[in-house]
Amino acid sequence: MQEKQAITGIDCHAHIMAVDFPLAPEIHSRPIRDVSAEEYLSVLGTHGISHGVLTAPSFYGPNNTLLLEALKRYPNHLRGTVIADPNIAKVDLERQLLAMREHGVEGIRFNWIKKQSIPDITSSQYQTLLGIAKDLGLHIELFLEDDLQEHVVPHILASGATLVLDHFGNPDPKLGVNSASFQNTLRGLSNGQVWVKLSAPYRLGFLDGVSIAPYVDALIAANPKQLVWASDWPWLSHENLFTYQDCIDWIRSAVDDPKIWEDILIHNPKTLFHF
Asked: For residues 100 and 106, what is the distance between their CA atoms, to the nearest angstrom?
């Protein structure tokens, strides 16, 4: 029986993968190496982080087997966010998601970045999925281009499901904090409808000299109680450019108040992911 451990930090977004695991039909690129839950937990422990959240990568579509097996092996230390198939019968979808929730799944991921066309969030299938998520207490995690969020976010919020935005809400680096979607994110934070992951600043141009301080300052001013930190390990498409400690230091150095940092690292994600 795995022993419970005091929470010293929660990494709210990381991936595990296997090179030989079947890819989703529309996917043509494979992960470059196997990445196990055991390796991830070792990385966490090396950096004083006790708990983590596994986010389903797009490689495998709605086949969440690898992630679920990891959650079953480490129920006290890991939670998960899965990809669901909205096209299966409602009763089967409910049964699948309920079983996943019992094993530590806390959210459903809409990874809709860089798609030729995004799914129709107003369709009966997605409205059903959103309703099930609300009823089961599963949040919706969204990763989507800045200019497309206005077509999706209002419908998620209208469903009553909790919304979690990846990677600072993915604002357009050219627009920065003045991005319309980022301003909407701030309003959603302020009224308690939205959570935001402070993660992957390199996807916003940070490695090219873009400062994340204005983003962090604005998000904290809006609502520091619904911000969480994540490493995005093992940094798909950005491998070997930085270290895990960098991912901690980037955000920690942008948060002036130690109490707010403690909330972001421990207390807020403990609430969101039910550790």
From this structure: 8
Return d(Cα 250, Cα 40) in angstroms, integer: 20
3-state SS, 121-184, equals: CCCHHHHHHHHHHHHHCCEEEEECCHHHHHHCHHHHHHHCCCEEECHHHCCCCCCHHHCHHHHH
d(CA 36, CA 33): 10
CA–CA distance, 236 with 114 (Å, rounded to integer): 14
- pLDDT tens-digit map of 20-62: 998 988 877 788 899 999 999 999 999 999 999 999 999 999 9
Separation CA 134–CA 225 (nearest Å): 21
Task: Determine the Cα–Cα distance for residues 86 and 89; give it in Å rounded to an integer.
Answer: 8
Over residues 187-223, the pLDDT tens digits come to 999 999 999 999 999 888 888 888 999 999 999 999 9
Q: What share of the chain is helix, strand, coil (3-state, %, to 5)?
A: 45, 15, 40
Burial of 134 (0-12, 13-18, 19+ CB in 10 A): middle
Q: Please report where in the chains the tokens 């991936």 appear, as a residue.
A: 15
For residue 41, give the amino acid letter: L
pLDDT tens readout for residues 159-177:
999 999 999 999 999 999 9
Name which of 68, 77, 62 is nearest 16 in CA terms: 68
